[in-house]
User: What shape does this take?
Amino acid sequence: MKRNVYFLIFMMLMMISVYFAYGQEQAFPTESNISWKPGFGFESFSRTIEWDGKESTSKLKSYYFTFNTDIELQSGLTLSGLIGYSFSSFNSLIFKELPFSLDLQAGSIGGFILGAGLQKNILSFKDIEIGAYGQFVYCLGVKENWEIPGLAVEGTAQGKPSWMRGKVGPIFSYEGYDYFQPYIKFNFNKLWGTFKMEETVEDLSGQEKKKITGKSLLEASLGAIYQLSNSLSFQAEINLLPYKGGVNLGLVIKGLYSF
Amino acid sequence: MKGIIKKADKLLYLLIIIFITTSTLSFQNFRSDKKIYYHRQPFQRDLKALNKGQPFHSKGIKYAPDQILVKFKPNLTKQMIKAEIAAYQAKKIRLIPRIHVYQLQIPENLSVEEMLTIFRQNPDVDYAEPNYKAYIAVTPDDVFFKWQYALYNSGQEIGPAGSPRGKSGADIKAPSAWEETKGDEQVIIAFIDTGIDFNHPDLKNKILSSGPDYANDDNKAADDNGHGTFVAGIAAAETNNSEGIAGVAWNCKILPIKAMDEEGSGYYSWIIQAIIWATDHEADVINLSLGGEEPAKSLRDAVKYANENNVVVAAAAGNDGASVLYPAAYDDYCLAVAATDYNDNWISWSNSGPEVDVAAPGERIVGPVPTWYWGPGSFPYGYGSGTSASTPHVAGLAALIKSIKPWLTASEIMNIISYSSDDINSSQFPGKDKYIGYGRINMENALVPIKITSGP
Assistant: This one.
């Protein structure tokens, strides 16, 4: 828990310092080529998750709205950050170590999203740019309370999820068009997290912390950046994570404004 | 040869029916110091019904999360259907022949409900529905299961033709709970009673050891009364063996301890020794279908010892329409069990008082009796009534909880059983009351994960 708080503080400080660093530059223009692209984004994904030692699976469905910043520190090196609010559904997660076993079917649970990414262009081949991309996203869910139905006495359950996702891999983008930049990414994509459930029924109480991991690790992403005007760009991306027996999908949409 | 076998089968069934109908027994007035009473039941000739009419248990509505089944109207060509499917970004998995139903994979970003809504609005679609899942029912094949209304009550006749009908749902929800667990072989239920029939076909494979006999001061808890065999069978008879009845805890073991003599009475000293012996010999649950009117600190200390060593004690409230017997009345250490009938009503002969924790069916319960009980050639089963018959339902449930959650303390298991009960008399006595305590036990609530679907 403490680690999560430290991480959140670190991420916020990082974003604030980047913001102020940029602000300083605006106030006192220098020769620096740093450009800042704030904007809004939306991401949605569905991920098959495993828990109880990979014995059980269910789906994590999440969508979140974010405020993004892409900071081009130098040509070909972009640092990005995001902060936002998410809705994550852990339906069919079953807790059997509580006094009364629970089957979570309560729909989406809210949570705060923080993330950071880095992209570095490494080499160019004609109009093809080859780079490396990495992103880390952390979701800290809010505590949610539910009544436990069907008992002779009143009982409550309290759940709190958190999950993290790290992506890293190469990115191939085509620079041959003026206003349109398609790209393809191949990522090692790891998702992991916990869901802490507490139960209180009269004098009975218990808690269970369930570790979850994403079932698939390799992701292919196909996307494009549209330069709508000199300062406005739009990015769309679909993600595919195949696994034995199916494929998980994700969608990213971002609108960015360049200063 | 086949004809002979068929005739033999019919003869067998006929004998079963004759046994049941002519020799039902009643434990209604049973107490540790009283005899068992019997009463006759009308004759029954319905042989065919023995293996039929079993209740079907469904696991609930579940369907494939990424598939639907769609039937298009017959005037559409294959090309048109293909175009329709593509327009919805669905993918054909297969066309089920004869009925022309398409099994479709839906797009990842849409739920089954959303996709069904879209398809159902299309005038070219005859019908669209989820790809539901079916489950084999956990319904044991024991021949008398259909009369065990206590475990599953669909409103059926609770015995041979002419027997009363129960009220649908007036049961302890056993089949759905068995989906979760049928018990662990390592979990032991000790039956402190009149002993057990070691040769009973529905029990002999479940008995852990010969057990001590405090009534006769020897080392074999043989049943010379019948009560102990009956009670043990209700909780833990061998199940799904095409024989007799289903036990509440299919796989849990029976540890017989004889502390009641052939008359059905026993000194407290025998019972106390039996409780301590059971606790020291790794019993997880103790069934006490017995009780006395007098309190005794030594008896209280014995059940306290069991409780402190994580042994769940289930004890009969008694059948006199009076106050709760001991040791059931030792509320902190025992689950005091009252009796309900096949209509989910409290029975007036069931003892009452603030010590009553829960109730379980105790009227006309079918169970095993010793093989010698009815004489040679008879089938060793019969009916009984009383909190003696209610208590092993609770003991069986305690054993099942212990099977899947061995880390729980005895007191926690007692609370789970209490809090998961159905408050069947809430219209008259909301909350815990002196008649049925928290309510009639509900195995499904106690064992199956409870669905959390909405906020507070």
In short: Confidence is low (pLDDT under 50) at residues 1-9, 11-61 of chain B.
